[in-house]
């Protein structure tokens, strides 16, 4: 695997997150009524996506991805980097599904499409390091970690933001 594919993961992650962070608040404001009507269970999540807590969650994910990338570069062990790559790629699958369900632009779809070729190349290169069974297990593990981290961040980051706000 070339080092460039390893180095690119945190960069691709942030390019994608910038689209979400910049576009999401105005998009939610414009589409909140329709989203709440069509997807009532989402109503409570919309405020999180517009808040500074979302930025804290992005920061936490960036630190994890960067640390795993640096560990891979230093040690040559790709395991944690590869799990991050798989989670990042599965995140795109979720955005593609959202795009087809909502049937119009969603903040994240442009960067998803632009980052997909990188993900395909990096996964193709990375999967050679593991057997088919290991790849399947790592895919499931990355999905579980991704979902668990998302749920945890939706609980923890509003509290972190509240704490920061009280300290200012």
Automatic annotation (TrEMBL):
Keyword check for Membrane, yes or no. Answer: yes
**Residues that span the membrane, as ranges:** 49-74, 80-101, 108-125, 137-161
Q: Which Pfam families match?
A: HXXEE (PF13787)
Ligase: present as a keyword of the record?
no
Keywords linked to the UniProt accession: Membrane, Transmembrane, Transmembrane helix
Q: What is this protein called?
A: HXXEE domain-containing protein
